[in-house]
Design brief:
Blueprint lengths: L3 E4 L3 E5 L3 H4 L8 E4 L3 E11 L2 E10 L4 E5 L6 H10 L4 H5 L13 E4 L13 H9 L13 H4 L1
Antiparallel strand pairs: 1-2, 2-3, 4-5, 4-7, 5-6
């Protein structure tokens, strides 16, 4: 199977990119999730060393987070994903962030629409800790999910 996002009538599949291809800092494991199990989708701008990157975060009904690296940008799979969920272009959404927003503090919900651009995580000590080491572990999503926003 080709690496990237694949969407069917009932499932979302992400097939990992090799760590050699994208680096360990952005490597994310493959997953498969039923579409009706997806509760929220968020974006998380990060620095991988000093390169700006972004992760797409798929959150299921059990509040488990499934990350997808920015290597999917510009692919047909991402376009199908955006279309299925009625999302604005994730590339365009990424442009709303400044360089300093990539330090692990600005995870924004983009689905469902009624929670658009609200914070995925509560701004508490866990988020503060994550900010300190996000440059070294860009795919860490340590924090307390904002239950008000992900319902």
């Amino acid at each position: 199977m080709i690496s990237g996002i694949h969407i069917t009538a009932s499932e979302l599949e992400f097939h990992e990119f090799s760590a050699k291809e994208i680096g360990l800092a952005k490597y994310c494991k493959s997953f498969k999730i039923k579409l009706d199990e997806i509760k929220s989708i968020a974006i998380s701008p990060r620095l991988a060393l000093d390169d700006e990157s972004i992760f797409i975060l798929v959150i299921n009904k059990s509040n488990k987070i499934y990350p997808i690296p920015d290597h999917v940008m510009g692919t047909q799979g991402l376009k199908d994903f955006e279309k299925h969920f009625g999302l604005n272009s994730i590339s365009n959404e990424w442009q709303k962030f400044e360089y300093d927003d990539h330090y692990g503090k600005n995870d924004k919900i983009i689905y469902p629409k009624e929670k658009y651009w609200t914070d995925l995580f509560e701004n508490n000590w866990k988020l503060t800790i994550r900010r300190l080491y996000s440059w070294a572990q860009p795919k860490s999503f340590y924090g307390t999910l904002n239950k008000e926003n992900i319902g």
